[in-house]
Amino acid sequence: MLRKIDIIPLQVLIEATIAEVTLNDTLNYGTQFFLGSKVAGMLSFNGATTSPTVTTIAGIPQGFAPNFPGFVLANGIREVINLLSGVTQVKVLSAPQLMVLDNEPARLQVGSLVPVLTQSQQSTISANAPIVNSVDYRDTGVIMLVTPRVNSGGLVTLDISQEVSDVASLTTGAINSPTFTQRLLRTRVAVQDGQTVGMAGLIRDNDTQGNSGIPVLKDVPVLGGLFSSQTNSRQRTELLVLIRPRVVRDQRDARALTEDLRNQLINAGLVRQELQRKPLHGSPNPNRL
After folding, report:
1. Is the pTM of this model over 0.90?
2. DSSP class of residue 230?
3. Which of 20, 104, 121, 212 shows its CA 20 to 30 Å from the CA of 247?
4. Burial of 265 (0-12, 13-18, 19+ CB in 10 A)
């Protein structure tokens, strides 16, 4: 009984990438439609091309099912980012790698704590009583919460909560409290060990208008257009979340993941050799005059 109980718990290495994709004419309908058209065109990923392939996993049919909140890719995150960066601008907001025990939550947060006014009160009995404010702090930035669950067949169930938020303005009407822009995604998906699940579709439109020119003259009716310039711009961005779980069952899997990371950071291993080749500076005996 002790031999059966005293076993190494399963661990999961979660590789995640949260990116902001600028939509253009090629990505007019979003990244999910773009990747789906690549699959429909039979451009599967191999040694010569860079297009991802959607596979059948856990009863999910090939392509995009209406009851599935994303898409499953047979290739890694790098192939998807390289494919999208070839047609548009891709801004990676965060790319963490977290090691977490099975059935334990992993949380990543990169951002700021913003004070929010929740309550303001003043005594009506005493004259010139001070105003007492209650302030709460809200987490903003890139916040990811993932809880993996691994079964005996290597299927990983992920409870994902992804939020990207920021402060939009300092005041809201007469209330001295900030306004937040938030893109939130919460879902539960099941993928095989080593495969990538992607979630997209959170699109945001940014419209900006500007008027510049010679003061006073630009505000003259009819003739003001001769002394001013009007600029209007619109930018559509989509939040893309790519997550790849890799199950670590024993020390061999841990060593294999370490070797993969070492191969990706091949130049980092040469730093120690370069330091050893450099000559020593200063006197070996600092007490000697």
Report:
1. no
2. E
3. 20
4. exposed
